[in-house]
Design brief:
Elements lengths: L1 E4 L4 H12 L4 E5 L7 H4 L3 E4 L5 H7 L5 E4 L10 H19 L3 E7 L10 H13 L4 E7 L1 E2 L7 H7 L1 E4 L9 E2 L1 H13 L6 E5 L8 H12 L4 E4 L2 H10 L4 H15 L4 H6 L7 H10 L1
Helix pairs in contact: 1-7, 4-5, 8-12
InterPro entries: Ergot_Alk_Oxidoreductase, NAD(P)-bd_dom_sf, NmrA-like
Protein name: NAD(P)H-binding protein
Pfam families: NmrA
């Protein structure tokens, strides 16, 4: 039995589909079972609630051979680290109680970064909690998700522009969520692996934001420009969106670390995944 958290999210939904296609028995933990498609609901065991809740985990993990773990974001939490650790401690304790053999966690690339990295440092703290259990653990270590650009599709179509808080001429490491799901599915179904490791999962491109704009321009058949979001505008936008003061600090530290090269060591060591940016963007604009 494979237990999947966040089964309605960008990664979890793709993972569940892959596991079911391979005939694997799947149990999901979901806050609202109504958000599962009917084709999924009838083929999985459902435990309703939060996987940050020990009681919910005690209903979900009996008989589990493997667990897929992803902490859902909460930008109104007192801090990213407090949020991640609350989930991770509940999960790690439950893994011990129920003797789960294998855990695959979604985290960030850049383990060992010597400076604060906000949201990413919180993910590293989560990994450490699971590693302390002694369980066979694989930390899928990712950079920027291509799907983060979906929020800019309107501006790309209407104004021919997109913005991110990244340097325009520095390569931006990226990954498509379907490749994360594919990597996770491989580990969850073939559990011959032991021990603990960080697994960098990176797409095949090494493109700067300016070069991403060039690809977009070619796909769209019109000019698309990149504009780097200033620190002030970034903070103003987060404030307007209702992010807590600490969440804003966590996000600023994360982007500073990314701009300073947090991903470089893992990027150099990663085996490139299948989905390149051009393929992803063509599909995104056609959707």
């Amino acid at each position: 039995m494979i237990v999947v958290t966040t089964p309605t999210g960008q990664i979890g939904s793709k993972l569940v589909a892959r596991l079911l296609a391979e005939g694997e028995p799947v149990r999901v933990i979901v806050r609202d079972a109504a958000k599962l498609g009917p084709d999924v609901r009838e083929r999985v065991e459902v435990v309703e609630g939060s996987h940050g809740d020990a009681d919910v985990l005690d209903r979900a993990l009996p008989g589990a051979d493997a667990l897929f773990w992803l902490v859902p974001p909460d930008m109104r939490a007192s801090s990213a680290e407090a949020h991640y650790l609350a989930f991770a401690r509940a999960g790690a304790d439950a893994v011990r109680r129920h003797g789960v053999g294998h855990v695959v966690g979604v985290t960030s690339a850049g383990h060992g970064w010597p400076k604060p990295a906000g949201l990413l440092s919180a993910a590293f703290a989560m990994d450490a909690e699971f590693e302390r259990t002694g369980v066979a653990y694989r930390a899928l270590s990712m950079p920027f998700y291509m799907e983060n650009l979906e929020r800019d599709l309107g501006a790309i179509r209407e104004r021919g522009e997109f913005s991110l808080p990244y340097a325009p001429d520095r390569p931006l490491a990226m990954i498509a969520t379907r490749d994360i799901a594919s990597t996770a599915a491989g580990l969850l179904t073939d559990r011959s692996w032991t021990g603990q490791a960080h697994v960098p999962v990176f797409g095949p491109d090494r493109l700067t934001p300016n070069q991403l704009a060039d690809v977009m321009s070619e796909v769209m058949g019109r000019s698309v420009a990149y504009h780097q979001t200033s620190h002030e505008d970034f903070v103003t936008g987060l404030t307007a969106a209702g992010f807590s003061t600490q969440a804003i600090q966590d996000m600023v530290e994360m982007h500073d670390a990314q701009n300073d090269g947090l991903y470089e060591a893992d990027w150099a060591a990663a085996t490139p995944t299948e989905t390149d940016f051009r393929t992803w963007f063509k599909e995104a604009v056609a959707a």
